Amino acid sequence: MQQTQALDDAFWLFTQDSQIYLVNDELPFGTAEQFGLSGANILNIGTWRDSPLFLVFDPPKSAFNAVNLRSQLYRLENEFYLLNRGVMLNYFFQRHQFCGRCGNKTRKAEDEWAVTCENQDCQLRSYPVICPSIIVAVRRGKQILLVNHLRHKEGMYTTLAGFVEAGETFEQTVHREVFEEVGIKVKNLRYFGSQPWAFPHSQMVGFLADYESGDIVLQESEIHDAKWFNYDELLPELPPKGTIALKLIEKTLQLCAEEN
């Protein structure tokens, strides 16, 4: 972490929780002085369109429009992931200003994204929390399983997902979550890809799977509906473009078509 000085033009990321502050739908670009950031605490988190991108801590927000990070899914993948990095790091540093072991103040580590306790007898080093979760698309011949969660009741249908528990492999999580949420068993798991998901600090690990056995039995505390859909029929509302969920669905539909 550093304080702004007479820096050249740069991009500036102002964020709180999962909100990002934009000017005309773009990240602010210019000098620190232009945006009233003289003396502000900043952190270089990467390069945005060939210019440095600085995460700004406690920035002035009155002149900027706030949007949710989800609204930026339309951006290029590397840009969206960089915004995720900024949101996750801001969340981490704001919530780790004091040591979790002795309660003393922390300072940012010089050599990596971490904080170190200032107490010389402690010096505990803490790192950003990243919570792994699986997301899986299940295929049965020419059909794909899609679920409607309670939070999207009667709206969007998507894939199954859930957090990895302590002492559990990703594959074990897939089997457990699928059985818990819809009561079926799956086989032939294949890794598909991953996506950082800063709400506030998840990492989505995607899998493709094939149906093995069982009938759909809903976990009613989480799932409103779950159905098998033929790949060539009209599908319900799906997740937005840019999500790993939609990528998994599109890949599964492709496999269904090839099965036909």
TrEMBL record:
<dbReference type="GO" id="GO:0019677">
    <property type="term" value="P:NAD+ catabolic process"/>
</dbReference>
<dbReference type="InterPro" id="IPR022925">
    <property type="entry name" value="RNA_Hydrolase_NudC"/>
</dbReference>
<dbReference type="GO" id="GO:0006742">
    <property type="term" value="P:NADP+ catabolic process"/>
</dbReference>
<feature type="binding site">
    <location>
        <position position="222"/>
    </location>
    <ligand>
        <name>a divalent metal cation 1</name>
    </ligand>
</feature>
<keyword id="KW-0520">NAD</keyword>
<dbReference type="GO" id="GO:0000287">
    <property type="term" value="F:magnesium ion binding"/>
</dbReference>
<dbReference type="GO" id="GO:0008270">
    <property type="term" value="F:zinc ion binding"/>
</dbReference>
<feature type="binding site">
    <location>
        <position position="112"/>
    </location>
    <ligand>
        <name>substrate</name>
    </ligand>
</feature>
<protein>
    <recommendedName>
        <fullName>NAD-capped RNA hydrolase NudC</fullName>
        <ecNumber>3.6.1.-</ecNumber>
        <ecNumber>3.6.1.22</ecNumber>
    </recommendedName>
</protein>
<dbReference type="Pfam" id="PF00293">
    <property type="entry name" value="NUDIX"/>
</dbReference>
<feature type="binding site">
    <location>
        <position position="177"/>
    </location>
    <ligand>
        <name>a divalent metal cation 2</name>
    </ligand>
</feature>
<dbReference type="InterPro" id="IPR050241">
    <property type="entry name" value="NAD-cap_RNA_hydrolase_NudC"/>
</dbReference>
<dbReference type="Pfam" id="PF09297">
    <property type="entry name" value="Zn_ribbon_NUD"/>
</dbReference>
<comment type="subunit">
    <text>Homodimer.</text>
</comment>
<dbReference type="InterPro" id="IPR015376">
    <property type="entry name" value="Znr_NADH_PPase"/>
</dbReference>
<feature type="binding site">
    <location>
        <position position="70"/>
    </location>
    <ligand>
        <name>substrate</name>
    </ligand>
</feature>
<feature type="binding site">
    <location>
        <position position="245"/>
    </location>
    <ligand>
        <name>substrate</name>
    </ligand>
</feature>
<keyword id="KW-0460">Magnesium</keyword>
<feature type="binding site">
    <location>
        <position position="99"/>
    </location>
    <ligand>
        <name>Zn(2+)</name>
    </ligand>
</feature>
<dbReference type="GO" id="GO:0000210">
    <property type="term" value="F:NAD+ diphosphatase activity"/>
</dbReference>
<dbReference type="InterPro" id="IPR015797">
    <property type="entry name" value="NUDIX_hydrolase-like_dom_sf"/>
</dbReference>
<feature type="binding site">
    <location>
        <position position="177"/>
    </location>
    <ligand>
        <name>a divalent metal cation 3</name>
    </ligand>
</feature>
<dbReference type="GO" id="GO:0030145">
    <property type="term" value="F:manganese ion binding"/>
</dbReference>
<feature type="binding site">
    <location>
        <position position="102"/>
    </location>
    <ligand>
        <name>Zn(2+)</name>
    </ligand>
</feature>
<feature type="binding site">
    <location>
        <position position="181"/>
    </location>
    <ligand>
        <name>a divalent metal cation 3</name>
    </ligand>
</feature>
<feature type="binding site">
    <location>
        <position position="127"/>
    </location>
    <ligand>
        <name>substrate</name>
    </ligand>
</feature>
<dbReference type="GO" id="GO:0005829">
    <property type="term" value="C:cytosol"/>
</dbReference>
<keyword id="KW-0378">Hydrolase</keyword>
<feature type="binding site">
    <location>
        <position position="122"/>
    </location>
    <ligand>
        <name>Zn(2+)</name>
    </ligand>
</feature>
<keyword id="KW-0479">Metal-binding</keyword>
<feature type="binding site">
    <location>
        <position position="117"/>
    </location>
    <ligand>
        <name>Zn(2+)</name>
    </ligand>
</feature>
<keyword id="KW-0464">Manganese</keyword>
<feature type="short sequence motif" description="Nudix box">
    <location>
        <begin position="162"/>
        <end position="183"/>
    </location>
</feature>
<dbReference type="GO" id="GO:0110153">
    <property type="term" value="F:RNA NAD-cap (NMN-forming) hydrolase activity"/>
</dbReference>
<dbReference type="InterPro" id="IPR049734">
    <property type="entry name" value="NudC-like_C"/>
</dbReference>
<feature type="domain" description="Nudix hydrolase">
    <location>
        <begin position="128"/>
        <end position="252"/>
    </location>
</feature>
<feature type="binding site">
    <location>
        <position position="222"/>
    </location>
    <ligand>
        <name>a divalent metal cation 3</name>
    </ligand>
</feature>
<comment type="function">
    <text>mRNA decapping enzyme that specifically removes the nicotinamide adenine dinucleotide (NAD) cap from a subset of mRNAs by hydrolyzing the diphosphate linkage to produce nicotinamide mononucleotide (NMN) and 5' monophosphate mRNA. The NAD-cap is present at the 5'-end of some mRNAs and stabilizes RNA against 5'-processing. Has preference for mRNAs with a 5'-end purine. Catalyzes the hydrolysis of a broad range of dinucleotide pyrophosphates.</text>
</comment>
<feature type="binding site">
    <location>
        <position position="161"/>
    </location>
    <ligand>
        <name>a divalent metal cation 1</name>
    </ligand>
</feature>
<feature type="binding site">
    <location>
        <begin position="195"/>
        <end position="202"/>
    </location>
    <ligand>
        <name>substrate</name>
    </ligand>
</feature>
<dbReference type="GO" id="GO:0035529">
    <property type="term" value="F:NADH pyrophosphatase activity"/>
</dbReference>
<keyword id="KW-0862">Zinc</keyword>
